[in-house]
Amino acid sequence: MQVPFLDLQMQYQQHKHEFDACMQAVLDTSSYIQGPAVGQFERKFGEYLGVNHVAGVANGTDALYLSLRACGIGPGDEVITAANTFLATTEAISATGATIVLVDADPTSYTIDPYLIESAITARTRAILPVHLYGQPAALDPIVAIARKHKLRVIEDACQAHGAWYHGQRVGTVGDIGCFSCYPGKNLGAFGDAGIVVTNDDALNDRIRLLANHGSRTKYVHEIEGWNSRLDSLQAAVLSVKLAQLDKWNARRCQHAERYRELLSGLPIKIPHVVNESHVWHLFVVEAEDRDGLAKHLADNGIATGIHYPLPIHLLPAYAHLAYKRGAFPVSEQAAQKILSLPMFPELTDDLIVNVVDSISEFLAVPRLGCAS
Ligand SMILES: *Cc1c(COP(=O)(O)O)cnc(C)c1O
Asked: Which residue of 73, 135, 146, 257 has the fewest CB atoms within a 10 Å radius of its CB?
């Protein structure tokens, strides 16, 4: 039995008629950039999140970069984020000219440890950039409280957490700005690159829109130098179709996660926990002592896995210049050696999950589910 890590083809086939029709409608108008499909999606996503402003951009990396710039962050400023994130988070900080300041993760949630943030704040700190890693909301209440106290911005990297809730609000809407990636494999994924910035702040929204469109409100009248980062109409149309399914798909991910947790409990493996009430399971990440051995065993049995991410930010070659030492962020470093992401996507079936767990049990030399007791 082959178990893919995720299967984008199934989702396309299930809603093929709607996808084909919505893309054909864009082709029929030939309005590819800033066409009506973009505004329609922005309105729908705003209603879904309960947020005043939504700006479609080219990708999640740009969403972060433009948000930081909209907050006026640049050279000489510092931005605090987690040591265990995808490179795009820190890349966006560097792209503004600001300095990356890393903080370790909490070992249970894998999100930034709020109790370590204050000691990383200096006179140059301008923003905190929490990442809702794997689909789990970061501890936003303490983060927002620290930010208020020190007059810092909070920019949420919600690229892995579309639709997750934090104390009654959707993530992305709790801080000053929320950033989403709609890379195809994300919980709300386009048929190519796409990104979204959301905010309740009128001035920030205005700035983001200006920056994302070459610094112009009126064509060829450029108030500032901006960037070219727009959500295109084809992707917006696809995202509108997918948005209607997002809660259902996230609910399926939650069911799969519950099933994995139930079947894996009792095995000598660390299973993920829901810390802040809601988790949309972009990834289902376990920790195993012999992670590489387990990954190979699963691969040999036709089961695809991933590692998110094999090196924390400070140990990446790209960041040697930051001069952080090995041992600086022990939680992130130890997790990076043990974490393994198991297959997770809405269309996963119970048979496939049982197959994955049987194979894990076999590797850990415990009785298979079928033969237990
Ligand atoms: C995917 C992702 C991004 C970047 O999004 P792109 O659309 O690929 O540019 C940023 N941060 C995190 C945590 C991500 O997972």
From this structure: 146
- Pocket lining: 306 vs ligand 1, CB cutoff 6 Å: no
Q: Decide whether any atom of ligand 1 lies within 6 Å of the 131 Cβ.
A: yes
Q: What's the confidence (pLDDT) of residue 373? A: 43
pLDDT one-digit tens code per residue, 147-196: 999 999 999 999 999 999 999 999 999 999 999 999 999 999 999 999 99
Q: How many CA atoms lie within 13 A of 91 on its CB side?
A: 10
Q: Please name which of 4, 7, 3, 2 lies closest in space to residue 184, comparing C-alpha atoms.
A: 7
- For the residues 205-213, what does the mean pLDDT come to? 97
- Asked if residue 195 lies in contact with residue 182, where contact means CB atoms within 8 angstroms, the answer is yes
Please report the atom of ligand 1 found closest to the CA of residue 181: 7
Is the beta carbon of 181 within 6 A of some atom in ligand 1? Answer: yes
For residue 251, CA distances in Å to 3, 4, 55, 138, 184 come to 20, 20, 26, 20, 19
Contact 185, 160 (CB under 8 A): no
Q: By the 8 A CB rule, do 231 and 267 touch?
A: no
